[in-house]
Amino acid sequence: MVSESPTFSPLYRQIKSLILQGLESGEWRPGEAIPSEAELATRFNVSQGTVRKAIDEMAAGNLLVRKQGKGTFVASHADPRAFFRFLRLVPIAGGVEQSTSLPLECWRAKAGPEAARVLQLKLADPIIIVRRLLKFSAKPVVVDEIYLPGEVFTGLSLEVLKDWTDSLYSLFETRFGVRMIRAEERIRAVAADRGSAELLGVVEGSPLLSVERVSFTYGDRPVEWRRGLYSTADHYYLNDLG
């Protein structure tokens, strides 16, 4: 990390950028505490108020987590709260449901034009494609097809996916050092084809939500392209705009 004091405005944004450099380089890993505001203020030769404003913005963006009486920590997908940040399905009947991931396939391929464009790869670069079924209360609700840069996720296999019991993003973070920071989604209504209908246990032609997601890590680098089909017979998609 650079330890020089930034010289142009806004100052707190420059401090935020320096802290982000530390996160991206792995100086502070997911789940670990970062230095105190006083320590960071000394390190960057700025006031604690400037550091606090930078940390406040990063906490609002789910990059850092403040814990009362303990300090400020790097956000992690291992935190149960992170699960509901990226999966917005809520049971119509109310309450909270934990999902179970059932990996179906995992294979290596070469990036076609669309995957190369979305993941900012070169044509024919190595990619990994994962298909999995997501169940809620033992009922299939989501079928996903996930495209990943092959060089980033070297070693990912169907066996690794089946052995992992936590969330997929937690696996990416823990095993491959890739933390999803934000995602962009496109949602539209589609009719279930024969294959998705069989997997989701619905009638062919039933209405489904098609959710296409691109997830980004530090540096706004796309590292996942996901296309999912959601059955909303017992669930709805919740988006909190507050």
Question: How is the secondary structure organized here?
Answer:
Blueprint: H1 11-25, H2 37-44, H3 48-60, E1 64-67, E2 71-74, H4 80-86, E3 89-91, E4 99-110, H5 113-118, E5 126-136, E6 139-149, H6 158-163, H7 168-176, E7 182-191, H8 194-200, E8 207-217, E9 221-230, E10 235-237
Antiparallel strand pairs: 1-2, 3-10, 4-5, 5-6, 6-9, 7-8, 8-9
Helix pairs in contact: 1-3, 2-3
Mean pLDDT: 89
Q: Give the overall shape.
A: globular
Tell me the strand percentage band: 25-35%
Helix percent band: 25-40%
Biggest beta-sheet profile:
6 strands, antiparallel
| Helix-and-strand structural type | alpha+beta
Total DSSP helices: 8
Count of distinct strands:
10
| Rg for CA atoms | 20 Å
N-C termini distance? 34 Å
SSE arrangement, N to C: HHHEEHEEHEEHHEHEEE
- Sheet with most strands: strand arrangement: 4-5-6-9-8-7
3D architecture notes:
This protein has helices at 11-25, 37-44, 48-60, 80-86, 113-118, 158-163, 168-176, 194-200, and strands spanning 64-67, 71-74, 89-91, 99-110, 126-136, 139-149, 182-191, 207-217, 221-230, 235-237. It is globular. With 242 residues, it is of the alpha+beta class. The strands form three sheets. Strands 4-5-6-9-8-7 form a six-stranded antiparallel beta sheet. Strands 1-2 form a two-stranded antiparallel ribbon. Strands 3-10 form a two-stranded antiparallel ribbon. Helix 1 (11-25) packs across helix 3 (48-60). The relative contact order is 0.12.
